[in-house]
Each structure stands twice: as C-alpha cells, then as structure tokens.
Amino acid sequence: MSQHPLPWGTATQAVGHCIVRSSVMLARGEVHLPREWVGRRVAFGDGSTGRVYRETAVDARPVDTCVLDVCFRLRGVRGAGHALFERESLLNTPLFVGFPGFATKLWVAHDDNGTYRGLYEWDGAARADAYARALWRVLQLVSVPDSIHFQVLPGIRREEVFARVGGPLGPAAGSEGEWWEVVGVE
Known about the structure:
alpha+beta
C-alpha cells in the first residue's frame, strides 16, 4: 500500500462524505468515548512512549480486522499547547468516525519528540489505507513536514497487538523495532 497522500480533490471529497456520515452517527448516539484505555502508557519500537488520552469507538464491529497506526508532529505546539490540543482534538472526531470501516481509535499523547499517534482498529486494510491517505491531507495543514507516517497491520485486532507484548513498559521499552510496533503497555 502507498505511503503517500491521496490527491487533494479526492481527499477533500472523502473527508466531506465522512463529516456528513459522522454527523448522522453522532446524532444517533453511535459514537462512544470508552475510558478503559485512558491513562495507560504505550511503548513503541522506536523507544518512544505515549499516554492514551482518549478512546473513540462506534457501534459497528469489524469483520476483516486490521490495526492502523498513524503518527505526526504538530507544527508550533509546545508546552501548554499540548494540553490545549488534547482538549480541542475532540472536535476532530467528525473527521474520522464516518469513514467506512472505522471501529476504534486510541488517541496517544505526544512523546518526548512531540509525536502524536492514533492507534485504530479498522474493518478492512484497504479502507484503513484509504482513510490514512485522506487524513494525511488534513494533517499536512498542521504538522511538521515529513512527520506524517502510517502503518496498516492486516488480519489482527488491537487486543492482539497488546497481548503480544506480554508485559509492562519496563523491559520492553528499550526494545528496538519499527516506529509503529507496540512493544509495551502499562
């Protein structure tokens, strides 16, 4: 799958359709903010860690499950700006919950490098890829150039990703791996 954004027109149209569908889903009460993962820390293969500050889920359950990891660094956000972004980011919910195949998202706060992550569960790898490539255009407006990356992991559920690490952050946090690999959780 391509690690490039969709053309602007295609991405704009996809996001527009998503916003309309999201509005309907929100009005019907199909979007939820579970708290099970909020406050937990997740370690990644590049040695970074981040705190889950929000979880979003919809009623639909995926059949062709995959995990999507997206990362980016916001341009010009420092210090107290991170706390402001975490609160404001709730307003971004209509930009993703209405995309076909969305199931869940863990919002992971900035790490020591200022990198934010979204850990998603999606129905269908091609749908996750299409979403990530459309999202790229939105993120380009506010992110440091070349900081946007994503990885689609087909055929796996989010719970399986976390079950694989088998322990707390301590021993696994120093593990070397890919930026997107979950290597620890507490």
